[in-house]
């Protein structure tokens, strides 16, 4: 199970890739595997303001539907429109083409340190190993 | 005599376990003055005298009047095939299947219902049905809100009053607003007012709901209303009468995003309050917003055709509070009635029903106008229209004495509208005879004299 070192992780299994004052958000390989085949991803319109842990969309698999939660505060810049036609990208490439939103971070410095809400790879790895 | 299965020893055992002295103690929270104190029933009767009593009561029903009442519930001939198939135990006794895929027959009837409505409306997706036209209308309004992420819905004041009431109830207590659009003297919705409201960009509109035919029986400029709605980024909802779709442009032809309506005219008997049938159809891109169940067709592992519940993640047992709807019991038996009705009549038969109703309505218009009750609105109509009479309520009551049910006094729906306060909404269907129309016109002459 891949858990890339350069990302931050939430307890809800989203990842955050920080790029200066912006960040890309998706769900982890662990989450994608647990969900099973993803059949639909509902994403919001760009411009939406987000609070940490706020629901910004829904991911639907053959088994269930789950909310997507924002890892940090900020504003949505773009969403991955490719998922509308190819939701399976979430299963095939969760850390790459399966990304969901790009956001501008309200507090870029605040998200870089590992915390309970935003873990580093080691902390997230022990979370999923604990089951 | 008691019909309960428990003996008094059983009851005492349960009371002891609960540590209370009597069953009444369970109801102690309910104030004594509002508690029932037993039922005041007459002494028992034998079967024969009970049957006589019920026959006497049934005899007080007025079944004689020639009815010109429509107003959302329409009298049509129902071919015997409908009841014959409905009353099969496999359909009649089953509830929503909890292991749906084992009930292939039930799923197939729902799939066929969806296909019939898709053909009538021209739209891509049809729900497995809703309680009634009002519930379907309210659900459509909420679909526009979810899809556009806007909070304001505009509805013509000339959609069916009960549908508007239901939608208002659904919109109560939240952030959503529902605003009524006025009508013009010809009975159509005021599109200039619509355009004005849509131009208010500070309060963007999610959806526009208009009836076809509307509550006055008048045909609306649907294509133009839809264009205006779409230009403002709003969705367009057509509230339709299903039999009219056999002769009028389909919702798809005038680019409606959603079509809803009351399915009762399709082979469902007139009865107090239902059970009726809520129809809801939508364009494919709205499929995730469609409330309630959807049945899809697929193949099983052996490659045979099979029916399944599909897109289940919209539903309340999976999405909980984020479900597309939590008021989405379907009316499978009524949907089956509609399916059998349409299949029995076929496309030509359905067109005949619509066209015959329109022809009888024209005959009715001429007869009533000659008797002193001209039409209120000059917009085009299909088989229902409003006529003006002095003091509509008392004329309505007097005509009932002549065994004529003279439609609906529109003051019931629009008490504050001077144009229709003294109007009767009357309709004709293929069941209306020329003799009945003559009787109506003759009685009206006498009443107005």
Please give the domain count of chain B.
Answer: 2
| SS summary, helix count of chain A | 4
Q: Largest beta sheet of chain A, briefly?
A: 6 strands, antiparallel
Net shape of chain B: globular
Quickly name the level 1 CATH class of chain A.
Mainly Beta
CATH superfamily name of the largest domain in chain B?
Answer: Type I PLP-dependent aspartate aminotransferase-like (Major domain)
Q: Please give the alpha-carbon distance between the first and last residues of chain A.
A: 13 Å
Mean of all residue-level pLDDT scores of chain B: 94
Shape of chain A: globular
Mean pLDDT of chain A: 92
CATH class of the largest domain in chain B: Alpha Beta
So, the CATH homologous superfamily of chain A? RNA polymerase II/Efflux pump adaptor protein, barrel-sandwich hybrid domain
Biggest beta sheet summary of chain B: 7 strands, mixed
């Amino acid at each position: 199970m891949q858990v890339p070192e350069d990302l931050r992780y939430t307890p809800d299994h989203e990842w955050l890739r920080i790029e200066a004052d912006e960040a890309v958000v998706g769900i982890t390989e662990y989450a994608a595997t647990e969900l099973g085949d993803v059949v639909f991803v509902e994403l919001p319109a760009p411009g939406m303001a987000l609070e940490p842990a706020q629901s910004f969309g829904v991911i639907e698999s053959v088994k269930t539907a789950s909310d997507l939660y924002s890892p940090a505060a900020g504003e949505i810049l773009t969403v991955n429109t490719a998922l509308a036609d190819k939701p399976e990208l979430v299963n095939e490439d969760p850390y790459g083409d399966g990304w969901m939103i790009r956001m501008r971070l309200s507090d870029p410095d605040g998200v870089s340190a590992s915390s309970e809400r935003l873990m580093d790879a080691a902390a997230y790895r022990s979370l999923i190993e604990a089951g | 005599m008691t019909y309960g299965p428990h003996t008094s020893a059983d009851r005492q055992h349960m009371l002891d376990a609960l540590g209370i002295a009597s069953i009444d103690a369970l109801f102690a929270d309910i104030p004594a003055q509002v508690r029932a104190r037993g039922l005041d029933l007459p002494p028992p009767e034998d079967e024969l005298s009970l049957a006589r009593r019920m026959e006497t009561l049934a005899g007080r029903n007025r079944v004689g009047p020639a009815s010109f009442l429509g107003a959302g519930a329409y009298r049509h001939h129902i071919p015997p095939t409908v009841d014959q198939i409905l009353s099969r135990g496999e359909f009649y006794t089953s509830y929503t299947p909890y292991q749906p895929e084992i009930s292939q027959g039930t799923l197939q009837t729902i799939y066929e219902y969806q296909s019939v409505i898709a053909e009538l409306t021209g739209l891509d997706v049809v729900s497995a049905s809703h309680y009634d036209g009002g519930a379907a209308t309210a659900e459509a309004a909420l679909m526009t809100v979810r899809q556009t992420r806007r909070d304001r819905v505009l509805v013509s004041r000339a959609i069916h009053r009960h549908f508007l009431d239901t939608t208002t109830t659904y919109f109560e207590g939240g952030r959503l607003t529902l605003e009524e659009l006025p009508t013009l003297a010809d009975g159509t919705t005021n599109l200039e007012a619509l355009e004005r409201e849509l131009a208010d960009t500070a309060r963007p509109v999610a959806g526009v709901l208009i009836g076809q035919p509307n509550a006055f029986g008048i045909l609306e400029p649907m294509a133009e209303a839809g264009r205006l709605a779409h230009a403002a980024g709003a969705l367009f909802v057509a509230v339709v009468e299903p039999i009219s779709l056999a002769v009028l442009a389909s919702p798809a032809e005038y680019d409606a995003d959603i079509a809803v309506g009351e399915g009762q005219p399709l082979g469902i008997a007139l009865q107090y309050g239902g059970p009726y049938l809520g129809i809801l159809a939508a364009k494919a891109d709205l499929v995730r917003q469609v409330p309630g169940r959807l049945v899809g067709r697929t193949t099983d592992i052996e490659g045979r055709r099979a029916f399944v519940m599909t897109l289940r993640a919209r539903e309340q047992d999976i999405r909980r509070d984020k479900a597309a709807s939590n008021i989405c019991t379907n009316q499978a038996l009524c949907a089956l009635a509609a399916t059998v009705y349409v299949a029995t009549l076929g496309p030509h038969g359905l067109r005949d029903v619509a066209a015959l109703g329109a022809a009888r309505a024209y005959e009715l218009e001429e007869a009533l106008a000659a008797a002193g009750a001209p039409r209120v609105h000059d917009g085009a109509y299909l088989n229902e229209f409003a006529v003006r009479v002095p003091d509509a309520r008392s004329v309505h009551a007097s005509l009932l004495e002549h065994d004529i049910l003279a439609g609906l006094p529109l003051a019931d729906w629009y008490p504050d509208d001077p144009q229709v306060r003294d109007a009767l909404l009357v309709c004709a269907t293929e069941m209306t005879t020329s003799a009945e129309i003559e009787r109506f016109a003759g009685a009206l002459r006498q009443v107005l004299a």
